[in-house]
Amino acid sequence: MPLARTPTATRWHLNDAPSDDASPLLASLHPLVERLLRARGVQNAEQAERFLTPKLLHLHDPATLPGCVQAAQRLKQAVDDQQPIVIYGDYDVDGVTASAILYHTLKQAGANVSTYVPHRLEEGYGLNAEAIKILAESTDPKPVIVSVDCGITATEPAHLAKKLGVDLIITDHHELDPRNLPDAYAFVHPGLPSGDTPYPNRDLCGAGVAYKLAWQFALEYTGCEQGGKLPDAYRKLLLDLLAFAALGTVADVMPLIGENRAITTFGLQRISHTQCGGLNALIDASNLRSEKIDSYHIGFVLGPRLNACGRMGHAKEAVELLTTASGERAKELAEYLHDVNDERKAAERDIVEQATQLVLDHGYDQPDTRAIVLAHEDWHPGVVGIVASRLVEQFCRPTILLCIDPSTQTAKGSARSIDSVNLHDAINTCGEHLAKFGGHAMAAGLSLPTDNIDAFRDALVNQVNNAITPEDLVRDIRVDSGLELADCTVEVFKLVQSLAPFGRGNPKPRLMLEGITLDRPAQQMGTAGKHLSMHLRSGGPGTSRTIRAVAWGMGDRAESLPAGSVIDIVFQPSINEWRGNTTAELHVMDLRPSLRH
To answer: For 512-540, how does the pLDDT look when each residue is reduced to its tens digit (9 = 90+)?
Structure first.
């Protein structure tokens, strides 16, 4: 049976890696590694060296981060005066790790410090006035409140804090309007105007911002000169806290280039050797003790567990795990996060099924509807963000999922986007229908009266329809380089691994083989035959070398792939280690009948 030429919902784009300089980046580089570097915008030897060998010296001086010095000096004053400090964090991984970074740094100085994280369902995202009031009245003297990963749009809570005599320090990284900032004591934000030279890394996450503040506080508190060597205790602590900064950077999907690449590289090295009892317990509960932890494990193993309690209930357990928990309490909390994550996955599966059916029933998958807005009373508000991401993958459209609360006649939800649509800007144009919203180009949170849902949907769809065409509603696969089967070896794939850590801004390389032949019929594998196993060769029958390829989720295509089928594939290189044997393996992202055949 020949391979059926069915329409595909994907486009393959081969990156030509244009360059004004045809000379080699580095004489020692393998041609494939050089092509991959050029595909990531690396154009000269200096950039190549920085990319391949990140150093702690690549971290920018914290004093150059807008507001960092002022905030650090105020925290030092609070510690000197034994004035209480409350760290007010967000409930996602970025917010939890940001809270942990500041907590451990201030504790090292003997600070009277505590943490607060709002309840996702009862209080919602960010600073809220009621919590500010309670915190302001909870201690004498009144505390300094430091927000992490939130607060840059919290005008009303900031006004209340000032009225109550509380110094509020806002640290954040989300989109801001420099003309309409809250009235706070200080702001620490990489996007704030700062003289003639803006901070070089606008893409710091909340944990990254907190790390810079922790670093600057350590310099201020110890009287160390800017750029000088900190006392051993603080130097070791800040090295250890890079693990939390890496967790926040990867989990919040920040670009892993420049300073973020250095944070993540060294943070990943610290995770398995962390001095934090809670993080060690989480590693054990996740069965990662024997693994070399990389960005994948943050994104798909550790991150979801830290997020789970915040999504399904209250993130205070995650904050406790990374701050004060040790021994049996840390083990108990880590196992609890593991169990709650299982509950989250079950809820996610149910909502994905319901939401997918609603899209099909209402025709939101048609070319004249280029954005999806769905609402339901039974959906869990802590899970709809993940489900929105799943629908974006499936339907290639910006997607908003809303949870309706009949008792208040309001709807709250999460939004996710595609690369060609700036979601923050698109939602902002429909702001007249909303009660509240915030976020950035690829993700946002919002709330609105239920009576406004239909009008908001119409306005957003109209806005997105004008911004993109039906041709944009396909999954784009950007291919870094073509390759020959002879180059698919363990040695070459190990060179590719030298570009890690992978993530946004530095995706795991995608390579292409063209005119490749199935040496034997493709076979289904896994539960219910969901996946596909293939053995590929180049050239005619009798070619000696074959390589195994696995196509996840493509088991239903097995019958159309008999021996002798000639195909093109896009794949990610992988190294498989099993029972002492190390082999090169291809993880197939897409396949098609060969255009050469």
So the answer is: 999 999 999 999 998 889 999 999 998 66
Whether 199 is in a domain gets the answer yes
Give the separation between CA 266 and CA 95, rounded to whole angstroms. Answer: 20
Whether 463 and 507 share a structural domain: no
Write out the two tokens for 92: 């996602």
Q: Are residues 427 and 526 in the same domain?
A: no
463 and 502 in a common domain = no
Prediction pTM value? 0.89
Q: Are 474 and 396 in contact (CB under 8 A)?
A: yes
* First CA to last CA distance, the chain: 15
Number of domains in the chain: 3
| pLDDT mean over 120-142 | 92
Angle at CA 396, nearest 5°, toward 394 and 400? 90
Closest alpha carbon to 264 in 502, 70, 87, 62: 502
Pair 497, 519: CB distance under 8 Å? no
Residues 119 and 213 reside in one and the same domain: yes
Residue 183: closest CA among 197, 172, 200, 169: 169
- Confidence band of 578 (pLDDT split at 50, 70, 90): confident
Nearest residue to 413 (alpha-carbon basis) of 440, 442, 386: 386
196 and 226 within one domain: yes
* Whether the predicted pLDDT of 392 surpasses 70: yes
DSSP state of 12: E
Residue 343 in any domain: the answer is: no
Q: Which secondary-structure segment (H or E) carries 308?
A: helix 303-312
Range of the domain at 510: 10-18+30-51+480-593
The more confident residue out of 207 and 194 is 207
Both 123 and 167 in a single domain? yes
**Is 84 in the same domain as 166?**
yes
The predicted model gives 572-594 an average pLDDT of: 92
The answer to whether 76 and 216 have CB atoms below 8 angstroms apart is: no
